[in-house]
Amino acid sequence: MSRLGAAVPCTRFGKSTPSDPSALFDKTGSTNGFGSYVAYLPRERLAVILLANKNYPNAARVDAAYRILKSVGHVVE
User: Fold this and answer.
1) pTM, 2 dp
2) Counted domains in the chain
3) DSSP code per residue over 11-49
């Protein structure tokens, strides 16, 4: 157990690759009136990051990101 301010040793993880080369990593989030959505396609080295007022629901952010990916030729089903 560590105390605040005490050094905690860490180990670097090896470089990992997704088992599925067409993998899509995504995450929604919000705080203090703001919302976000991140979609990342590692094989394509492409990411979409959306920041919006929190009154835009997660589904709207996700839909917008998928439309952006589709418009640049990266169809996500």
Assistant:
1) 0.67
2) 1
3) -PPPP---SSTT--EEEEEEETTEEEEEEEEGGGTEEEE
